[in-house]
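Weekly sync notes, structure subgroup
Attendees: PM, AL, DS (notes)

Item 1: joint prediction request from the bench team. They want all two components modeled as one assembly rather than separately. Inputs as received:
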Amino acid sequence: MITLNNVSKVYRTQTVETLALNEINMQVEKGEFLSIMGPSGCGKSTLLNIMGLLDEPSNGEVSLDGESIHAYNTRSLARFRNEHLGFIFQSFHLINDLSVIDNVELPLIYRKMSAGERRDLAEEALVKVGLQNRMKHFPRQLSGGQKQRVAIARAIVGRPNIILADEPTGNLDSVMGNEIMDILLSLNENDDTTIVMVTHDESMARKTHRLVRLFDGQKVS
Amino acid sequence: MCRVAKFCDPTETEKKMFKNYIKLAFKVMGRNRFYTFISLFGISFTLMILMVLTAFLDDQLGSHAPFDKADRISFLTRVVQRHMVTDTTLVVDSTLQNGVMVYDTVENTNEVSRSVSMSDPSFKLLNEYLDDMPYVEKMTKYSTRHSFDIFLNSNKLTFSGIYNDATYWEVFSFNFIEGGPYYADDVKNRLPKAVISEDARLAYFGSGEKALGREVFVNQTNFEVVGVVESLSPSKQSLHADVYMPYTFMRPSVLKENSLQGPFEGAFLLGDASELPLFDDELRRMEEVIPLPNPDEYNKLELGSYDLVERFAFGMFYEEDKEDSMRVFILIFGGLMSLFILLPTLNLINVNVTRIMERSSEIGVRKAFGANTQHLLVQFLFENVILTLIGGVLGCLMALGLIYLINDSNILTDLTLKFNPTVFFYGFLVCLFFGVLSGLLPALRMSRLHVVSALKENAA
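Output from the run, pasted for the record:
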């Protein structure tokens, strides 16, 4: 589904050149739940951003379903992300000005869809994460776990093929973290959603199908 | 170049999308009430001040009664007499050449004004020298404002009065509520006829009384009221008075006075506005031709002609010459208007920039979930345009309210400000322009922000 061929990422400033990723080769299969682990600064998030088409590699190639994304322009990439990818961030990144349901509807705004259809899909997604009673609330009125569940609903509302989660339990206590993990596992099992998750938590990583370890920008296992 | 067909299809401008943007704009405004209030206040207050200020200027200087022919009128309001002398200065330059002192002398001659006398024109100047000027269709001469004490049933009234000729009523378009003006023959034959203002009618005859055919006693003469005109604001120089009478009722000495300076003013109605510069040239020519009554005292004449705006500026600030008056006028009104537009605009830009910076996380999220630069730009544009539209409607209502209050309270006597839709339209366009600009520039910058950086900036 996602194939990385010799992917490297170099960050350059005026004085320093940092190699964030060094010739990574990997493949994510359809329906797989993959976790990426490694110490801080080892390039986990960079790798996830490249897989999620949010960032471009300095070298190497990213292919989706066998098609190289090299040929896509910014607009096509945005459209691809909208239709095929869902994101979950450690710090939730909910829009405080919008209600829960409006936050969840956000990816659908950029599709040709009636307001009614959008609302139905958003409600459905909120039911999946157990927040059907919080639709009219605003992010400030929610706990950390609830915020992350809204973020999951937002990630799944567009029925993406792949969900990319960057430390989704990183800001949560263990109880809430487990709740979130259960939701992700059930999405993977029941809806056959491919999930790539970056985590620091070994116990969470052990629940996934496969674990990739990074160290200093290199894949070590 | 996009090479993958299924993702190259450009986004259609969808009606649904716009509906979303509008909805979102209202949501954003509703959630950030303080920011919304500041922005709306800025826009509506600017428009209100702009409207009231222009309504005032329009009332004073617009092409409507009594000045509906103003673009063709040149006012002669200033006569300057100077005593010019030739001033000679001798410059001696000394240099030592081969042990001999050599002197080089240069004589500089300048015309210098020794003394100066400035005043209004006299009856004689207007009547004898300027009553048959080229390009002039009609010329009127009228006195500066006089003040009369009138005793009526043991009450003292103070009336302001203007003595004029019959052409006055043709050059300026007064609104007659009763009757009409007096005519050239009435003036020539010294018939005691007068036109009074609506306010004067109320003061002299009482509420609800008609004045036509009745008499007013002014300056020891009983005048028959032949017309009543709508009262004008005192700021309407040359025109505002309680009573208008034929100039033949002035003291004969004033009319016979030999001086070129006196208590009069002239207004020349030209055939066409484009002839104003030519008329000015003619006046310059007349300055050379008109004999000065006492050349030993003053040997140079300057005739100051003004258009309506210059006349207004001159009457308001009374600077020594026309240019100085205009400079003060432009400085004050132009400065005020620029200030009232500029300050809220800068504030709006500042608020918008800060606000949009705070929204970098939102921009990052939207981009991650499929928004492209165009989506984001249109979204921010909608937010600003809707805000400006609401501000515009509020500004319009506030301006209408303030104009009503000013007219109703009579703070400015006999001044009737009118809401000018054209000015509102342009003022609104200016606000819209700055509203869009202030939103668009930061939005453009932010929408181009790399999605990873945008998400990092506000990772709270």
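Discussion: The interface with chain A takes residues 1-4, 7-8, 10-12, 14, 16-17, 19-20, 24, 27-28, 31-32, 361-362, 364-373, 375, 450-452, 455, 459-460 of chain B (CB under 8 Å).
Action: AL to compare against the crosslinking data before next sync.
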